[in-house]
Amino acid sequence: MNNNILHVSNGSCIKVADIPVLSYDCFRATTLELMSDKARHCVSYFGYSSAEAIRLMMCIADDAAHDILVFACDVENGARLASAAADCLALERYEREIHENWGLEFEGHPWYKPVRDFMPGKYKFFEMEGEELHEVGVGPVHAGVIEPGHFRFICNGEDVLHLEIQLGWQHRGVESLMLKKKRLIERVLLAEGIAGDTSVSHSTAFASVWESLCGFKPGKEVLWARTLAAELERMANHTGDLGAICGDVAYQLGAAVFGRLRTPIVNFSQRWCGNRLGKGNVRPAYAPYAFTEELRQQLLSDLSAYERDFLEMSDKIQHFPSVLSRLDRTGIVSTEQAESIGAVGMAAKCAGVCRDTRASHPYGVYASLGVQPVVKESGDVLARTELRIDEVKQSLAIVRALLAQMPSFGASECVNIPSAGCPASGSFAIALTEGWRGEICHCAVTGADGELVAYKVKDPSFHNWMALALAVRGNEISDFPICNKSFNLSYCGHDL
Amino acid sequence: MFKSLNIFLHQGKQFIPDIRNAKAPRVFRGRPVISTEKVDEEAFAGVCPSGAIGISPVSIDLGKCLFCGECERCFPKKVHFTDDTHLATNVRERLIVREGEDKPIEVDRDAIRPEVRKIFRGSLKLRQVSAGGDGSCEAELNATGNVQFDMGRFGIEFAASPRHADGVLVTGPISANMARALELTYEACPEPRLVILDGTDAISGGMFADSPDLDRSFLESHHVDLFIPGNPAHPLTVINGLLDLTRSK
User: Fold this and answer.
1) Tens of pLDDT, residues B51-94
2) Which domain does A92 fall in, by range?
């Protein structure tokens, strides 16, 4: 059966005609067989409209073999199919999404809940009956300055029995605009806005997909700059999150110090590319902002000042009983749970599942850096706090290693913007990047004229919201903010 | 104990003493200046991804501009983005920068509702509503409260409940799914209440302006008191904009 699938590497482009098309029964059986191996997980599963049928595309990453398995299946409009999620929970949100976007029915699906397309105010939440039970609804507008989502808790006293998360409030139509807007710069800006706090990693995934569709190989300095920008993005967000975690346990010193330590990192991003969040720093085919020797010296001195204060503050919270008691054994996700829901990034790595695209499917210049993912076993808020501290330390080392092998950038004054060329016709491209939250996957399909016929985005939050729902079970509802903050998932990245 | 004292000591002085005149580290893409150099106007307007460039005369609408710098890259002699962070105004028309102009963007005192400066000049609490915001504007709004920008020193803060707020500060292009929640949050604020749009997405919809998944009808029925452009808006742009609106210099 496995002979029928195509093995592709991260950031590669293949002809659509070469993708094996299986019958749905075979498609489902192959998927389930492949997913039974723990080294594999589904990075994207989506549908698109092709010649009076709906084509389902399955992309399963094999972390051990460092490749991605791709196969497809054509089904009729309105087809009723046997749910694969019934036997493999990690696929459940993908099936709900395909149902919502294409009207296919998946019989036997465990919970046919809307992903994004719901009627605000009319959707009926899951209910439990019991004399002692009560419900608590939170959102979509939250108390802090964050994005909207609705959380519905079912509690017994203070203990959470069940949390249902309803997203979709942020839906802006990113994927359909990707097809509708024809100019490259429009699409780049859409990619930057998928999740504004991860704009570097999302636009890197877009650039990689676009370049491979065009058969363009970016220069070493381009890949180097993207890698550096991604690690700075990781440091800035992890540092900000550590401050927010301290704030949620009312530890003001940590909140203030980590909060202000984010500033030198984002300010450096602004010195480099004119935007604190790295917007504008990644463009297909070229590096728009040259990295100069002056910037290198600036970053080295910023980092040494940052490092001393960061290490001092993180050492303090790791040995401070009143902080630790709030983090330790709060909001646990077990290894089995993380594996079963197909968790990625921080949510997986904190539950003992080593899943990091930088190591398993390296892109940019990560292959030469040999990233060893940080993995924690306890799966609790403390693990997600310590993981951030360790990843910041690791990113510091990576950034310094990058600065030691800085490539030369051509003259930045170029009136003619380098172009990757035109996308090849009838092609499929896939790119994975490791954003600070976890694995990002972008897929694109072109038609006979080379125009995009499908563009699929998957943010790590697509998998990881389920991890948050599981983490709060059995916890006090008052610990929800700290659990939520420890994941800090993206609403707009999920809602698209 | 000594560890904590050491940490205190090592922070030094972090706050920015003079927020009104503080400069963002260069390179910051702030208010653009458009030269009178002759260019192919159609081609110039054509590079803009969000339709912010107008022609005859050439202009850039900061309510639509995403500050991507594409126009400056293609036409470096025609346009230059300065590091001026003062971009907020209460008059939508004032966000349009025309060729040959190099004047600051300012709040029009005469257009401010009289009760605003009377009631909010010493204290302003806002309820933030993200309605399709991509998380970047929200991150920068959180940064306004850090020890460096310290917006709280001016008595301006974000309130957890609209009941305690003097108005709503909206980020994002206003997704259809958030339209009702935004309206309800606004209605829950006691009067008089402000409407402030933070970021280009909120002001015009940005890249999502023609998406069928938006519902911007809220803006048709409510007066907007302040427009704060940016992608995302810089904390200095936000704080100085709110100060310009609520108090005299």
Assistant:
1) 999 998 999 999 999 999 999 999 999 999 999 999 999 999 99
2) 2-107
